[in-house]
């Protein structure tokens, strides 16, 4: 439920902030 | 420390020496060399110039070189330590070092603060957080009414902005992430602990014999 989360919890869901993607073939 | 064959030295010509990079980071020499294989793959994906440009970074993150993204731009800028508009191998290794499980909480907190301080004012301001929140909603095609967004921002700043000056300073951020450790989840890549086994495809090029230290 987004309204119970703080803004940074939502923001950290961005795909761009998962640098593990750099390692994907 | 690792010994380094002349062929591998040729391999790294024009790049910082992996033995030196390993001595400055949580990575072993062979892990730095494995990262070099990853770096070569990304830095040659659009222009084979031994440097990662923004398109190559976006391609590596999204498998789409044209996908502009607020957060990818911010991460790229933070990795581009020398402000050259490209990421060289030394920047790449030192920046990824912060995401190592063994990197300090302080380094992770500092990096995440700079990540969210979009305008580099030394504070995370409400307008910046709103901009990032809207960018996230667009990226995930989620729709939230504006007053819901304002409510989330109110709640967030109520928790984080202790001195109520409308912005989050470094100390407030440090205290906030201690209370909300999940916010630093993005700052640790567990498999950086041992790249050489997790990414065997990078190991076959390895030419550095690690001498037991």
UniProtKB/TrEMBL annotation, chain B:
An individual GO BP term: calcium-mediated signaling
Entry GO terms, CC: membrane
Gene3D superfamilies tied to this protein: EF-hand
Record's subcellular location: Membrane
Listed GO MF terms: calcium ion binding; kinase binding
Alphabetical UniProt keywords: Calcium, Membrane, Metal-binding, Repeat
Described function: Acts as a calcium sensor. CBL proteins interact with CIPK serine-threonine protein kinases. Binding of a CBL protein to the regulatory NAF domain of a CIPK protein lead to the activation of the kinase in a calcium-dependent manner.
Family: Belongs to the calcineurin regulatory subunit family.
PANTHER family in alphabetical order: CALCINEURIN B (PTHR23056), CALCINEURIN B-LIKE PROTEIN 9 (PTHR23056:SF96)
Protein's UniProt name: Calcineurin B-like protein
Organism listed in the record: Noccaea caerulescens
Lineage of producing organism: Eukaryota, Viridiplantae, Streptophyta, Embryophyta, Tracheophyta
């Amino acid at each position: 439920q987004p309204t119970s989360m703080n803004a940074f919890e939502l923001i950290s869901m961005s795909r761009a902030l998962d640098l593990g993607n750099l390692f994907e073939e | 420390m690792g010994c380094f064959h002349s062929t591998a030295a040729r391999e790294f010509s024009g790049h910082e020496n992996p033995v030196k990079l390993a001595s400055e980071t949580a990575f072993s020499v062979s892990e730095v060399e494995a990262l070099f294989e990853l770096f070569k793959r990304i830095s040659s994906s659009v222009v084979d110039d031994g440097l990662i440009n923004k398109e190559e970074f976006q391609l590596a993150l999204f498998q789409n070189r044209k996908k502009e993204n607020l957060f990818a731009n911010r991460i790229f800028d933070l990795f581009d330590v020398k402000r050259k508009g490209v990421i060289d191998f030394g920047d790449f290794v030192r920046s990824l070092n912060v995401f190592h499980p063994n990197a300090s909480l302080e380094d992770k907190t500092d990096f995440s603060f700079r990540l969210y301080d979009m305008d580099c004012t030394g504070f995370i301001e409400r307008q910046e957080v709103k901009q990032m929140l809207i960018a996230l909603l667009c990226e995930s095609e989620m729709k939230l009414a504006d007053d819901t967004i304002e409510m989330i921002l109110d709640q967030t700043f109520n928790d984080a902005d202790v001195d109520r000056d409308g912005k989050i300073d470094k100390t407030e951020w440090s205290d906030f992430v201690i209370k909300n450790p999940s916010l630093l989840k993005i700052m640790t890549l567990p498999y950086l602990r041992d790249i050489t086994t997790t990414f065997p495809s990078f190991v076959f090029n390895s030419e550095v014999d690690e001498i037991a230290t």
